[in-house]
Amino acid sequence: MAVYTDVSFEELEILLADYRVGAPLSFKGIAEGVENSNFFLQTDKGAFILTLYEKRVREADLPFFLGLLEHLSAGGIACPQPVRNVKGAQWSTLNRRPAALLTFLTGVSLRRPDVKHCGAAGAALAALHAAGADFPLRRQNALGAQSWPNLAHSLLDQAEGVQIGLRKLVDEALRKLDGHWPHNLPQGVIHADLFPDNVLFMDSKVSGLIDFYFACDDAFAYDLAVMLNAWCFERDGFNVTKSRALVSAYRKTRALSDEEIDALPRLATGAALRFLLTRLHDLINHDPMALVRPKDPREFAKRLRFHLRVKSPTEYGL
Amino acid sequence: MAVYTDVSFEELEILLADYRVGAPLSFKGIAEGVENSNFFLQTDKGAFILTLYEKRVREADLPFFLGLLEHLSAGGIACPQPVRNVKGAQWSTLNRRPAALLTFLTGVSLRRPDVKHCGAAGAALAALHAAGADFPLRRQNALGAQSWPNLAHSLLDQAEGVQIGLRKLVDEALRKLDGHWPHNLPQGVIHADLFPDNVLFMDSKVSGLIDFYFACDDAFAYDLAVMLNAWCFERDGFNVTKSRALVSAYRKTRALSDEEIDALPRLATGAALRFLLTRLHDLINHDPMALVRPKDPREFAKRLRFHLRVKSPTEYGL
Q1: What is the pTM of this model?
Q2: Cα B83–chain centre separation
Q3: Which chain B residues are Cβ-neighbours of A4 within 8 angstroms?
Q4: Chain B partners within 8 Å of A292 (Cβ)
Q5: What span, in angstroms and rounded, lies between the C-alpha atoms of A73 and A67?
Q6: What is the dihedral of CA B140, B143, B147, B152, to 10 degrees?
Q7: Which of A1, A289, A292 comes nearest B288 by C-beta?
Q8: Sheet holding B97-103, edge to edge
Q9: What is the ipTM of this complex?
Q10: Is residue A71 within 8 Å of A90, Cβ to Cβ?
Q11: Mind listing the pLDDT tens digit for each residue in B57-104?
Q12: Nearest to A254 by CA among A128, A139, A79
């Protein structure tokens, strides 16, 4: 977590001439997200985040990402809202990078959410799915199920060096999903990365959802499967009380069909595989000069093993 | 600039049980300083910085650093003030590191301060020297003149690989200072690192001085010489209008003796050498896994060459 592209106060001032956000009082780089450079800006009118999009976020995707944030904000979801500049644009250019000014959300992300937090986060996901339903833009899930076999093939030779047995595990998961991936589930805009890092809490209530830069169109239930992976594992394994709280709260706002429930073990397997593969990729291709430490892929190897043994959705507390 | 040691919200909450600073509303790692891990904390009572001291700041020095901040705050200097915990201690322990909670200062640091800013910063330095005069603790300048010959020797073999001529330049500076370093100038607490990064402005007024982790006892005029290096060079060379503004503003609060004025070229040479050597050290010993990019030593080679050619303090605008 670091700032990749520095922004001086003088550069900020030139940018702010195009915005009506008041006079700057404080401006600091923050260690947030692994994809972009982020700065905290306090002005006499409020608090903002300035984001410079680095190479992993394509400028062509910004109308989707920033449009979605506007759409969700209008729909009552607490998420960062892009501040349009005086020309009405959602983003500008700063230091040769697309740069957006977004409203700052109060709240803190938790490292060890409890059952109550899992419930609140599940409800927030369902509200997000409902609010995103009529968003008109589309974006394919670049890290969806269709991408995993090729990604896996590019990594398998080196996977054994990370952990013995990883190659066999990935092969087993790919074989299990091959021809059995659920393609006809209800789809719409999903967050696709709703880890505890990306949910802000005030006391036990969700005060905001952040980091929508993996958002895309995919099965709603896949988003839930990502959360089963991201919120319900503890050091000693899967906590079914947490997953029950998460899924139950979700279902109060958006009903799950029988097909979605049946598909959960495969969706959860796929989600674990997705994070295992991308973390493996980031570790194997890690630039030692990069300002970010790669995350440990082995956590997701454990989670993947768990899902491969699941025989019924009831094991997730349904 | 990065966060070296992560702090979860849960860990923060345990720490905050020992402080009376209100309920947390926001908590984020910030990219500030190269020595420590820093976090921005907003509570319902105010804004704070949480600093975890990494290996380059010794715990034994914290009574000096934090006591100085309290002393200077009491003396009217706008600088971060350590918040004492319920036991009255200036720092606690968090994630096996000493950790202090400090008040947050509004203001922004400038990359290209103009003449007016140089004047304001010079006045702030003099006020700092005056306010620190009766501070009872002492700390030797670990990076003072006595340290340069050994530091230089440990680097000279590799210096040529950084820039051709660097070895000769460092030798020339050491020879010039050997036996001619001014030892009897008025001394007291100095900041020793008052670069533009460490001065916060609101409009054209100084709103705060930060990052006192090189503060020590040394000649007041050496602190001024550090600022001549840090504030008055532009891409095309030394700007005497800036140095005149800086020194004149300083002298309005604290008079310079004839000895201090005479010594300025040697002090400025020494200050340039100090930053050249420490940057060389950081570059040569750079851990590629470190979360910080080393600063370019060659800037200070240029500045050192400038000072070596100076024949009279009048060239600094005095």
Answers
A1: 0.89
A2: 21
A3: none
A4: 291
A5: 10
A6: 180
A7: A289
A8: A92-94, A97-103, A46-52, A37-43, A24-30, B24-30, B37-43, B46-52, B97-103, B92-94
A9: 0.84
A10: no
A11: 999 999 999 999 999 999 999 999 999 999 999 999 999 999 999 999
A12: A128
